[in-house]
Amino acid sequence: MRPSRITAHFLVALTPGLVFLLWLQWQSSSNPWGARRFTLFDDAMISMDYARTLAHHGEFTWYEGAPRIQGFTNPLWTLWMTFIHLLGLEGSRAAVAVSVTSIILISLASLTVFKMLTRTDAGSRPLVPTFAAASIFFLYPTVFWSLRGMEVGAMAVFALILLVGAVSWAEAPSRPTASPVVLAMTLGTFTRFDFLALSLVTAFLMGVWAPDRLRGRTFGVNCGVALAASAVVLGAQKAYWGSWLPNTYTLKMSGAPLVERLARG
User: What is the pTM of this model?
Assistant: First the structure.
């Protein structure tokens, strides 16, 4: 497709989804007892509390003077919330800034899917990438939790960057890894530690896709990047909060045997 047609098709994909997200966000601020009030999901508000305390008091704790206990699992996302507070946004304005961030991230995910498909055989059928890009905005669990302040939108973008980076690298693998892969592995793991699973799967696939002369190095380098990012997260958590893993892990994983947890899914 010509560049002008590509832009037109993406705008067709973007417009209805963006209207839908803005409508959802507006609806969520409805307040029968007074002025509109933007809020976030309770887990996201815990991260907001940590972010506000760090921005205002320099302590990465739930509130000023609180013991150092890590009550969140999304460090990089919480640091973004800290930046929002450093800009002077508070309360409802800070909440809507987080939600707007998620709208931008979902739009970026849509654009990534669109560009990825236009580079494949699907690009010869313009409706395929257009429909796929538009569908991102209507994945309700993704958009709901993103607009409610969780890091889902960011994780989706990092996962797509990881996928596109790995596939693009595989087209002409002259080095053990690629910059988008390293970036996605690092930012994804800094956002949520369990992104490590996606990183290790990608490292394995890149090792399989690599030519014989690069196979060992490819697997080793990409696993090394994933594990190094994880080590930074674990080390920082241990150094500041005194525990390798967040308190939420302890609360969710202790007190019930593994067999019972597996039986309940």
Answer: 0.92
Q: What is d(CA 85, CA 7) in angstroms, rounded to the nearest whole number? A: 35
Helix ranges, 2-90 (H) = 3-28, 42-57, 75-86
If DSSP codes are grouped into helix, strand and coil, which group holds residue 71? Answer: coil
User: Which pLDDT belongs to residue 258?
Assistant: 79
Residue 2, both tokens: 């010509």
Q: Which residue bears the tokens 């390798």?
A: 244
Instruction: Show the 3-state SS of 236-255.
Output: HHHHHHCCCCCHHHHHHHCC
The two three-digit tokens of residue 45, written as one number: 């508000």
**Contact by Cβ (8 Å): 248, 50:** no
DSSP reduced 3-state for 196: helix
Mean pLDDT by 10 residues, the chain (265 residues): 71 93 91 86 96 97 96 97 97 96 97 89 75 95 96 98 96 95 98 97 97 95 98 98 92 80 79
* 3-state secondary structure at position 192: coil
For the CA atoms of 237, 243, 248, 253, the dihedral, rounded to the nearest 10 degrees, stands at 130
CA distance 125 to 69: 53
How confident is the model at residue 81, as a pLDDT? 98
Residue 102's SS3 state is: helix
For residue 253, the model assigns a pLDDT of: 78
* Separation of alpha carbons 177 and 162, rounded Å: 11
Residue 53's φ and ψ, nearest 5 degrees, are -65, -40
**Helices in 119-171 by DSSP H: which ranges?**
127-135, 140-147, 152-171
